[in-house]
Amino acid sequence: MPGAVLTPESTLRTASRVRRFLAVFGPGLVVMLADTDVGSVITAGQSGVQWGYRLLLLQLILVPILYMVQELTVRLAIFTGRGHGELIRDTFGPIWAWVSAIGLGIATVGALLTEFSGVAGVGELYGLPRYASLPIAAVALLVVVLTGSYRRVERFAIAVGLFELAFFFVAWAAHPDGSALLTGAFDIPYRNPDYLYLSAANIGAVIMPWMVFYQQSAVADKRLRPEHLAAARWDTAIGALLTQLIMAAVLIACAATIGRGDPNATLSSVGQMAQALTPFLGTTMGNLVFGLGVLGAGMVAAIVVSLAFAWGLGEVTGYRRSLEMHPLEAHWFYGVYALCVVAGAMVVAFWPNLVSLNVAVQVMNAFMLPIVLGFLIALAVKALPAAYRLRGVYLWVVIVVAGVTCTLGVYGGLSGAGLI
User: Fold this and answer.
1) Which of 67, 88, 104, 119 is in the most buried spot, having the most CB atoms within 10 Å?
2) Which of 314, 316, 340, 317 is nearest to 325 (CA)?
3) What predicted TM-score, i.e. pTM, was given to this entire model?
């Protein structure tokens, strides 16, 4: 405002708001960077190769849906102080808590296979065998969590996750045709089963069970209070926009390069994607930029997925769980995390072809959406204080959006599999 004078009071208020945001900032961005994991990257790449820009609009439509879902986890954590599994157990009983935990376990297995497959794929780009790259990655993940606090784990996750920004360079270097991009984005072959199957995979790649468990537990572990709600919502909104822009960048890069030259190509590994891009980016630059992006995606997702399962199982069974506790104080929590990391690395080391399951894992996530979103909405209606629970018009908006998203995900998966 012209002529406005900054008083000491206004300066202090501004500084206080900035400090509050920085103190709250983290869980939303971390979970969203993990959302763009290796499986999601390959799903977006295959979407661009097979369908050009026809799945680009879906990436943008999913931004507000993703925010809507994860904002509920923030609300539940702040106003109940409990993680997702614990809240289900206390609200609906132990049987339903175990149902949610089993779904989380299935999603965790699928996700870890894709993350470590991606890490191994990056190593192989530089001639490093997976029996060398996977132990290095596993040890790094163990050291960060077992010797740190929540804040240190969060900073490490954000640091490695920001390597995903390399995908924006890949999209820019691909020089997509603007006219073809706009035309393709609005050309929706909604009756094609293959298109519907990849649509389901993209939906499942965006909303995953472990994201709900992680963000709610992380916000509760961080002990955020009601006055932090606005900043936590901004953290989630920024993360939701960033993760979908990264997905869009991967799709655009692959559509503008591989899809334009060979729309029948099948991308099932990091190496295949990097090699397919090298004619357009050069071997050295293609491997480096794409490798950094995938490495960041795989490492941050491996942390988030493993912690989500360790938190979620602890919330259902009752063992002590917090990154602020020493490993000897919460040995089950840290033990489950370590088991997830070590087992994931070992499985990928001995069965290297599991990376081909990437798209199928995302479709599996889409099949679990009714359970995940059903629990989340029910908790937001029943467990929150009256002033903050879902009600009125927004409740019906959430129900309709969740219903449409679940229907599209399940129908697309069944249609693509030839079951309907």
Assistant:
1) 119
2) 314
3) 0.83
